[in-house]
Specification:
Length: 486
């Protein structure tokens, strides 16, 4: 038989088998577009705007549909009702961690972000308890944020009204808050370790949001055998973990079990308590990974939101002026803002919420997985099925937020001008930094606007607020401004 004929027949058989396996394996799953052999539906997803792609597909297949990202089925939840039912009403069944191959390479299922099952529950319980003991959600962590806000203002004053990129300053502040909790010390804004952290965080966020990473996640073999930006991502994580290991060794040498100073000390004490437990989850490698998770969750999200928020306040000076008027009326210029002020500042609180809603920082949640076989809206979803939640579909729901593509604090104000909560701000059971992030955003934004006018270096009509990409995250564009003291 001619070689070409053999190749054609072999390829045809391969395609037929792939289609048969995908279709037969997904008969009980929610509907979705027909996948291509091997590639699945990857060509139907715009890696630069995943949220829009999922929205378009939901118009055809409904709020619960199936995509094949490569050869594996993934169930997508789109819209408030479906997302709430899964994350809130049936949170335990949807609380598993789904596959994220590039990120998975940085861990062996340790920590509080990449772990699963009982390991995740135990590490989460310990971490939340320890963070609370150091003031998470309490007055002493508020003092820490207030002090960092004052340091941020002093650094911004040093720019002397010159045009500057705020990325560094708005990254250092939230990073130092986490440093205080984990290391029991903050860093000077020119400290090389701090600058290195921020550079790696910023670079990794952009890499994770790139189309190439989406390809690697769908075809994991590429991670080990192909060059690309994922190698930079993995090296950055390795470098940060090495630094954390060195800090842990320093803590071990000066540890006082009767007087823990920070998160690392508490973890080391727990390790000592369980040193004879061969099945303990509290190991040095677990501590390194957990510290890395704390920095990743507690620094980059707040930093990116601040950068994007200041850009929006720069773009809309009439909104900024209203916030500053409220600051003058409630706080004045001679004391630091505090969280008690928030209840008397409905417009400012609305602005902070609208910043988070509008920028849609994470268009989809990190991949989740079902923890058991479940029946969801008359569909059967097997245990371990990857779940993607479209957060964009919730935060940009036109029924809850009229003109969702417009930056409008009125989305969170009632007819009398009082702050209006929205159920559409959902927080799943893997979110540990929700309260801290809200505190930091309120205190950092109000402290900056209490002390400075924001002046654009370009005409406002030329100031671009479009994200660079809406992949894993909505990455804000680069910009400059002048901080002009009152």
């Amino acid at each position: 038989m001619d070689l070409a004929v053999i190749l054609v027949l072999s390829l045809s058989c391969l395609i037929f088998f792939s289609l048969w396996r995908q279709s037969s394996g997904g008969r009980k799953l929610p509907p979705g577009p027909t996948p291509l052999p091997i590639l699945g539906n990857i060509l139907q997803i715009d890696a630069k705007n995943i949220g829009r792609s999922l929205s378009n597909l939901s118009k055809v297949y409904g709020p619960v549909f199936t995509l094949y990202l490569g050869k594996k089925p993934t169930v997508v939840l789109h819209g408030y009702e479906a997302v709430k039912e899964a994350l809130i009403d049936r949170g335990e069944e949807f609380s598993g961690r789904g596959s994220f191959p590039v990120v998975d390479r940085t861990s062996t299922g340790l920590g509080i972000i990449l772990s699963n099952g009982n390991r995740w529950k135990e590490m989460r319980r310990f971490s939340v308890s320890t963070l609370r003991s150091f003031g998470m959600g309490k007055r002493n962590i508020e003092k820490c944020v207030q002090e960092e806000a004052r340091c941020l203002v002093e650094e911004l004053r040093k720019t002397k009204c010159s045009p500057c990129d705020p990325t560094l300053y708005l990254g250092c502040a939230p990073c130092n808050v986490i440093c205080s909790i984990v290391f029991h010390n903050r860093f000077d804004y020119k400290d090389q370790h701090l600058l290195s952290f921020l550079e790696k965080f910023d670079e990794n966020l952009k890499i994770l949001s790139s189309p190439w990473i989406q390809v690697c996640n769908n075809f994991p073999a590429l991670i080990d055998y192909c060059p690309g930006s994922h190698k930079i991502f993995l090296k950055n994580i390795a470098d940060m973990k090495q630094y954390f290991f060195e800090k842990i060794k320093e803590h071990q040498e000066s540890l006082d079990i009767n007087n823990p100073r920070d998160f690392i000390d508490c973890f080391l004490i727990k390790m000592e308590e369980e040193k004879y437990n061969q099945e303990t989850e509290f190991t040095t490698e677990a501590l390194i990974t957990t510290v890395n998770d704390l920095f990743g969750a507690g620094t980059e999200t707040v930093s990116s939101t601040l950068k994007y928020g200041i850009l929006l306040l720069l773009k809309y000076p009439e909104i900024t002026a209203k916030v500053q008027e409220e600051i003058d009326h409630v706080i004045g210029r001679h004391r630091s803002p505090c969280m008690q002020d928030k209840s008397h500042m409905p417009y400012t609180e609305a602005v902070v919420h609208e910043i988070q809603r509008y920028i849609d920082l994470l268009p989809t949640s990190g991949p989740r997985a079902t923890t058991c076989d479940i029946k969801f809206r008359n569909y059967f979803i097997p245990k371990g099925t990857t779940i993607i939640v479209s957060l964009t579909s919730v935060l940009h729901d036109s029924k809850e937020f009229p003109n969702p593509e417009k930056f409008d604090p009125g989305h969170f104000l009632d007819e009398s001008g009082k702050f209006k909560k929205s159920d559409y701000f959902l927080s799943g059971n893997r979110n540990y930094f929700h309260c801290l992030a809200r505190m930091e955003l309120f205190l950092f934004v109000t402290t900056i606007l209490q002390n400075f006018h924001l002046k654009s270096v370009v005409d406002l009509k030329d100031l671009d607020i479009t994200p660079v990409t809406r992949g894993f995250a909505s990455v804000p564009p680069k910009y400059q401004l002048r901080f002009v003291p009152f």
